[in-house]
Specification:
It contains one helix and ten strands. The protein is mainly β. Strands 1-2-3-4-5-7-8-10 form an eight-stranded antiparallel β-barrel.
């Protein structure tokens, strides 16, 4: 792993040093995400487990900054806040790379990319007459690797717009919380993000 990180850093620094055309950019935008959350509830006394799946669609807003190398390689860091319900919150920080295809020097450029994302999800837990949680909230941290496809259009040398679709190739990480019923039976609930995708549109400025 250390060798891989060193190699990625070396290649990135080398490409920055060799690039003749370096542009910095910022962009803002938003869109819609689809999140599938899987929950497993296990009865502690005998290990019997039941699973459920909940699908949610969230709007989101995002801000990104980064560099464009030779008008072809786009490297960016973004912060995304999801519009969840009052008792839940979710945000992510992502580092991505996109390769932009130039077609006859057109201002319209399709691109493909990858992004690594750190996602934080939190949900407030409310006790009920027959059930008590061990904690007041469930906090879930996941790591995701996204594949990305999109298109970018340059209005002029400074302003651009782009649209992209991200799909999580892999998601890792879960969280467990304890539950006890009024009769004293204890359960453990484990939650994880099973699927994650998002579509967004952005406007940006190069300088």
């Amino acid at each position: 792993m250390k060798k891989s990180i060193f190699l990625v850093s070396l290649l990135t620094i080398s490409s920055l040093a060799m690039a003749r055309d370096i542009e910095y950019f910022v962009s803002v935008g938003g869109g819609k995400s689809s999140v599938n959350i899987k929950g497993d509830v296990k009865r502690n006394s005998d290990g019997v487990t039941r699973s459920t799946m909940i699908s949610n669609d969230y709007g989101f807003v995002s801000i990104q900054g980064g560099v464009l190398l030779e008008s072809t390689h786009k490297i960016g860091l973004d912060y995304t806040k999801y519009n969840t319900s009052n008792d839940t919150s979710m945000y992510s920080i992502s580092l991505g790379y996109d390769y932009l295809f130039s077609i006859n020097n057109s201002a319209l450029k399709p691109f493909l990319g990858l992004a690594y994302s750190l996602n934080k999800y939190s949900e407030d837990l409310q006790n009920s007459p027959g059930m008590t949680w061990d904690t007041s909230s469930a906090d879930l941290t996941t790591n995701a690797l996204f594949a990305r496809v999109g298109i970018k259009y340059d209005f002029n040398k400074n302003f651009f717009v782009l649209a992209s679709y991200d799909y999580a190739l892999s998601v890792s990480g879960d969280a467990s919380v304890g539950i006890v019923t009024s009769s004293g039976v204890r359960y453990t609930q484990t939650v994880e993000i099973d699927k994650l995708s998002r579509f967004g549109a952005y406007i940006g400025y190069k300088f």
